[in-house]
Specification:
113 residues; 4 helices
């Protein structure tokens, strides 16, 4: 009789354990996506960790730029109201100021990237 040697050695050995907690809802979502991809949850999470792209949080500078854009948006809405009430010529004068501000913000955004 030949000696039983068991399962053959894997070509690449998984050496480190990474564990983390998830909520029940998150577990269900991960389980559903893994089943949809026809892999087990460990393989799904491993592939997601290696191949997916994570978007970084906004820097404080980017948040300030976004706040400026929201403010400009609100001001432009007010210009539309002025244009309807007083006529387009008075709104155009105000719009030139905001156009310069928008150009500056766009320049800041393009320089940041």
């Amino acid at each position: 009789m030949s000696k039983i040697t068991g399962r053959p050695k894997k070509a690449i050995k998984q050496e480190k354990f990474l564990g983390f907690f998830v909520t029940n809802a998150q577990h269900f979502i991960i389980q559903h996506r893994a089943a949809k991809a026809h892999v087990n949850m460990s393989d799904y999470l491993r592939q997601a960790a290696i191949y997916s792209e994570i978007k970084a949080r906004w820097t404080p500078e980017e948040r300030e730029i976004f706040k400026k854009m929201v403010g400009i948006s609100n001001d432009l809405h007010q210009l539309v109201i002025i244009g309807r009430q007083e006529g387009a010529t008075s709104a155009v004068l105000h719009f030139q100021q905001y156009r310069q501000m928008i150009d500056e913000v766009i320049k800041q955004l393009s320089d940041a990237k």
